[in-house]
Structures are given as C-alpha cells and as structure tokens.
C-alpha cells in the first residue's frame, strides 16, 4: 500500500478536480447529463436504454421498431462501439442508463490522469512531473469537450496505460506486461474504433523506431527474436484476439455489406485540423478571453468558446523544452517524432498555403481507412506525446533546483498555471431533467402520455433531422415514436415523413390526418423552438382533427380526434 500511496493521492486529486470541472454533474448523476438536449448525448443514453431492455426481454437489439415507427431503425447499421453495446447496458441494470452514462464520463478524467501519472513516473521517476503531466492529459480542452459530446471519444484513459505496458514489455520481454499491454490495447479499441487505430499507429511507429535505433546504434542483438520475445508477442496477440475477436468479426461483416460509409475527401478536409487550432485558446479563457474572442472572429469568423484542438501554450513550451533538455534520450526523440507525425495526420488530406493545396499522407491513407471522417481527433495522439514530453521537461528542470522547498514551489506554480490555462473549458454544460429541470425534458406532458393505456404512437414537432431529445424522452413515455433517424430507418420512412413535415395548423390536412391514423398516432407534441412557429398549433382548443390537452415547460400536447 505504501508503494501505491502516491498513486492513490494522485487519483483522489484528479477526482476532486473532475468534480469541480464538471460541476454539477457529480451531484445529479441520475437526473442530468453533459452536453445539450440537441446533442448526441440524449441519443446515446436512449441507445443504452434500448440495449438494456432488449437484453432483459431476450430479444434481438439489432432492430428497434419503437422509433421511426412503424418502419423502425436498424441498430446494426449504426456505428455502435462495443462499450455502448455491452458495458453501458449492463452497468445501467445496476443503476439506470443516465447514471451509467455519467459514471463512465466522470471516471474517464481521473483514470486518464492516473494513467499518464504512472507512465511519466515510470519514464522520469519524478512524481511532481508525473502529476502535472496527468493534469495536461486528463483536463485538456479535447477531453473536456468530447466528454460533453461523444461518450466513446471521452474515454482516452486507456492510452497511457497501454503505452506504459508496451514500453515495459518491449524492454523486459515480460509476459505479464505483454498481457497487460494486450488488455489495454483492446480496451482502447473497445471504447472507440478511432482509439484502436491511434494505438495501432503508435505501436507501428514505436516498433519501427526501435528497429531503426538498433540498426543505427549497431545494437542488432536488441532485436533478437528469442523464445521469451516470441512468447510475449504471442500472449499480446492472443489477448487482443480474445477480447476484440467478436467486434472484429462484426466489423468485417459491416464492411462487406457496405454498412460502413466511405467518407468523401471534401468532408475529411472540412473536419481536419487547422494550423492555428493548436495555439488559439477558447474565448472563455480568464483575463485574455475578450482578446481571444476578437482573434477567433477574425480567424474563424465566429466565436470559439470551445476549442478541442487547443493544446495550451504552457504544455507546448514544456514539450519543446523537454526535447531540448533531454534530446539524447530515446523516449524523448520517439515522442517528438510521434507528436509531429500525429500532427501531420491531423491536418487531413491537404495543407493549403496561399491558395495552393499540398497533398498530405492522409490522402493516400484514406484509401485504406475510408471510414475515418474527423482526422483532427489525432489531437489526442499529439496530446499523449505532449504530456510525456512535458513531464520529461519538468523532471529535467526540477533536477536543476537544489532545495526541496524550491522544487515544491516550482511544481505548485506549474500546476496552478496548467489549471488556469485549461479553466476556460470548465464552463461545463450540464442538462438537468426531471422535477428540477427547466427544459422540455422536464415537461409533465410526457408523464401524461405515459399514463395513457393502450398501444399507440406519438409524433413530435418540429420534425428534426436528428431528434435525439425526442428519442431520449421515449424512456419516459414508453410509446411508439414516429420521429426517428432516416438514414438507418426502414424503406419508406423518409417518404412518409416528407408528407408530415409541414403542418400549417392544428387543422391537419385530411391526407395528413389519415396518414397519422394509419400509424396509430394518438398524441401530437409541439415544442416551442427557435425557428419553428408553434402558434399555428394553438389557434383554438378544438380543431377539425385535433384537440388541445395541456401545456408544460415548452411542450404543447394535442390529441388526434378519432
């Protein structure tokens, strides 16, 4: 326990900072979620609810008929990670799907910090440097933003664990370390397919670097494939195949059936990193925020309160210092090369200079990995290397400080500066629903629908392209929902919704009325939303085809007259 006491203290410290950075999520684990009601989070929580009920009822989760009703949606056609399909549903059975979602998001921060802490401590032997590196990795703008948008991408925590045991396994050819490396590589891929790809890229570069290093330094014996090395490699492969085998098989089937989209070059270029992304902070950064906002308006043409590709001036400075001060160390050189390579990949297919488009490596890599759309997510790979290089720099600088008090003061200043620089992202968006909520997710209209007996469906207006907030509330009303997702719905759904999109009044056209009757609609829910005129649904209590029932927190309820 004494040997691990520093790790426990570090993990506890990261947990406390997580509670502060994501406030008030920790205190509303079952009645709130990070993000916005129109974001991906509500849809992901609904998906957890769907899988949980499918497992409980022993039915196939591959097809959900209850949304995009009556055509349903093909869950198997969606990009669902193994974590979404297995971990969250089973975890939610012990709590609920909202609590399970929040728990996974919340835990990703201190675990990411701990993983980087252990990695840098192993490399440098310096606990202060390791703790600061953990802060950089775990509380970066990338992690803060992704944790409020995409659950799978929030789980960056297993990357430093994998790198740690890969380095240890390569050095000692130890079977235990190799098995742990295989486990953490698999966890990365299970969290999100992108992270499996990034760690595969890291592994290929690491091994290539070690081979080149041995050849240059004429230490070919270091590359010897003895029995111990082969055993370690076999153990790594077996662990990965056992854990990832089912997912790999399903992915191959999806590729063969064309379910995995090939992203066009123009789309990849749109979502690639821009050179200035790394150095322009969020406009919410304390003190300098107003100046940053003006710069963002000039560069991006809009305010950027959230900047996921921003790495931080201090971490960049520390990383550069680490490269200079420890340039003779092998791990320093490799991490610098990996950071540069990841940066080039994050830039996408073209580097545009004065109107000239210079082809980049991803233009060719895209042919082999056509499903990757947002290459700027390589930011997390850059961040991984940057955090390690920062730790190396901090260790080198602290070694030059003679007194213990001086070292403590130095690390205290560094930690404060890191937290200050990243604090612009701490304005964490949390949506509260239920009795204490103030959005449409707290409307009593849904409870009213739930108490109605019978097997019927509802429809909600306006008909959004991605109605995640409507889908989320199916957990409450438990009725069939006509709203849904067109690109994974059964044939005929898109044509049906085109006929239902425009409703000029509560007096539906006769054609729309008959169509809603055919799909068993009993209630129409209308939301007060910007850009959608809900007044047309409120011309009177009784129309030709509808009857007003109630209104609460931005939601109007109308009944379709039989």
Q: Would you count the extended β strands for me?
A: 11
CATH architecture of the domain at 434-560: 3-Layer(aba) Sandwich
Please outline the major beta sheet: 5 strands, mixed
Strand content: 5-15%
The oligomeric state of the chains shown is single chain
Mean of pLDDT: 87
Q: How large is the radius of gyration?
A: 26 Å
Which CATH first-tier class of the domain at 434-560 would you pick?
Answer: Alpha Beta
What low-confidence regions span 5 or more consecutive residues with pLDDT below 50?
none
Question: Order of strands across the widest beta sheet?
Answer: 8-7-9-11-10
Shape: globular
What is the number of helical segments per DSSP (H or I, 4+ residues)?
23
CATH topology of the domain at 434-560: Rossmann fold
Q: Name the structural class.
A: alpha+beta
Describe the structure.
By secondary structure, this protein is of the alpha+beta class. The protein has a domain at 434-560: Rossmann fold. The chain has 23 helices and eleven strands. It has helices spanning 5-21, 40-57, 82-94, 97-124, 127-138, 141-147, 151-154, 158-172, 175-191, 193-216, 227-256, 265-270, 289-300, 313-325, 330-346, 362-365, 379-399, 404-422, 444-451, 468-472, 474-477, 493-500, 510-518, and strands at 32-34, 63-64, 73-74, 350-353, 356-359, 430-432, 457-461, 480-481, 521-527, 546-552, 555-560. The strands form four sheets. It has a five-stranded mixed β-sheet with strand order 8-7-9-11-10, sandwiched between helices. A hairpin with a 2-residue loop joins strand 10 (546-552) and strand 11 (555-560). Helix 4 (97-124) runs antiparallel to helix 5, helix 5 runs antiparallel to helix 17 and helix 9 (175-191) packs antiparallel against helix 10 (193-216). The radius of gyration is 26 Å and the shape is globular. The model has no long low-confidence stretch (mean pLDDT 87).
